[in-house]
């Protein structure tokens, strides 16, 4: 299988080189492994150096994009909020980002998006609510009237925490009960008492627990938010419409990468290569799921939960935002 992928990749690159002699980069054509002519071979993808993007890195390392005739350049983003303006301006062709941000931006008319690949779903330990070692807070019910630190209000973190509160028969207010701090600062937030609890993601949750003995009082990947879709890859509708074969090639490569990421060993091995997480630390992390198919029914859970907690004014039909995978 490795030999076949290498041969396909070499042939694809040779074809790109042969057709690129005209000097018109954007008009360069290549044939993907699926047999279709690519409208655009060089694409720029936005990414974030977190565990969630492991399949993207696997696809780069294994030559899965090259095998499809794609010449991929990665742009590292400071956070998901950067993805929307960069997609809109054309600085990025496709970008990783969380579904709440994508769906909200599309619903508000900020940008017209198409989801081109699933990316990451929660699992045990990936999204938790933690408190200081000596905190009197023992359960989610004890969070009533307390403050919780999240990286961004009115987004995936607050939504997951509010769902946890509802499961325990009380509500939390977006403005009164949440304070914003970047994930790297959350250990200090607990130590300084700037919030009663924090909602870190991996690797921060594991590291904070090891460093100061912070305790997990609730794992959000349970009940109504178990195995919850967290993030994926999106392009503008304009890009998806103008470059259907290019998008399909990206989807095929990511599908193969997602399948490889189902083996935890592959994810643990790649993490130290694109993050500052050391190999021994990577082995101890909680790692979520990497869905191999783009399923509107799964993603509709996100839109429906957003509407339930006031993050969407109206219901959103996620099927309208899905870029249907190629049948080739």
From TrEMBL:
Gene3D superfamilies to which the protein is assigned, alphabetical: Periplasmic binding protein-like II (3.40.190.10)
Signal peptide, first to last residue: 1-24
PANTHER family listed in its UniProt record: ALIPHATIC SULFONATES-BINDING PROTEIN-RELATED, TAURINE-BINDING PERIPLASMIC PROTEIN
Keywords assigned by UniProt, alphabetized: Signal
Taxonomic lineage from the root: Bacteria, Bacillati, Actinomycetota, Actinomycetes, Streptosporangiales
Keyword Signal: yes
Name of the protein this chain belongs to: NitT/TauT family transport system substrate-binding protein
PROSITE patterns in the cross-refs: PROKAR_LIPOPROTEIN
Localization of this protein: Periplasm
Pfam families: NMT1_2
Entry's family note: Belongs to the bacterial solute-binding protein SsuA/TauA family.
A cellular-component GO term for this protein: periplasmic space
Main location: periplasm
UniProt keyword Signal, yes or no: yes
Species, as recorded: Streptosporangium subroseum
């Amino acid at each position: 299988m490795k030999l076949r992928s290498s041969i396909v990749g070499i042939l694809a690159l040779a074809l790109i080189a042969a057709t690129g002699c005209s000097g018109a980069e954007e008009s360069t054509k290549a044939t993907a492994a699926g047999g279709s002519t690519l409208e655009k071979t060089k694409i720029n993808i936005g990414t974030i150096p977190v565990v969630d993007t492991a399949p993207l890195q696997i696809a780069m390392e294994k030559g899965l994009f090259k095998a499809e005739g794609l010449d991929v350049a990665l742009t590292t983003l400071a956070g998901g909020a950067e993805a929307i303006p960069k997609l809109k301006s054309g600085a990025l062709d496709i970008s990783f980002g969380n579904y709440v941000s994508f769906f909200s931006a599309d619903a508000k008319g900020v940008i017209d998006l198409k989801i081109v690949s699933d990316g990451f779903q929660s699992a045990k330990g990936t999204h938790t609510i933690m408190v200081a070692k000596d905190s009197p807070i023992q359960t989610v019910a004890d969070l009533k009237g307390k403050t919780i630190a999240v990286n961004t209000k009115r987004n995936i973190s607050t939504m997951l925490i509010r769902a946890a509160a509802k499961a325990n028969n009380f509500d939390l207010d977006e403005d009164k009960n949440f304070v914003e701090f970047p994930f790297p600062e959350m250990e200090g937030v607990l130590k300084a008492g700037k919030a009663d609890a924090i909602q870190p993601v991996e690797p921060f949750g594991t590291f904070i627990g090891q460093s100061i003995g912070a305790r997990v009082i609730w794992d959000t990947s349970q009940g109504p938010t178990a195995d919850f879709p967290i993030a994926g890859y999106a392009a503008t509708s304009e890009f998806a419409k103008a470059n259907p074969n290019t998008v399909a090639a990206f989807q095929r490569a990511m599908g193969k990468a997602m399948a490889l990421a189902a083996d935890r060993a592959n994810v643990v091995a790649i993490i130290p290569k694109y993050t500052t997480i050391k190999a021994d630390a990577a082995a101890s992390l909680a790692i979520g799921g990497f869905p191999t198919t783009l399923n509107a029914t799964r993603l509709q859970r996100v839109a429906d939960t957003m509407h339930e907690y006031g993050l969407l004014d109206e219901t959103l039909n996620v099927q309208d935002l899905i870029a249907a995978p190629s049948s080739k």
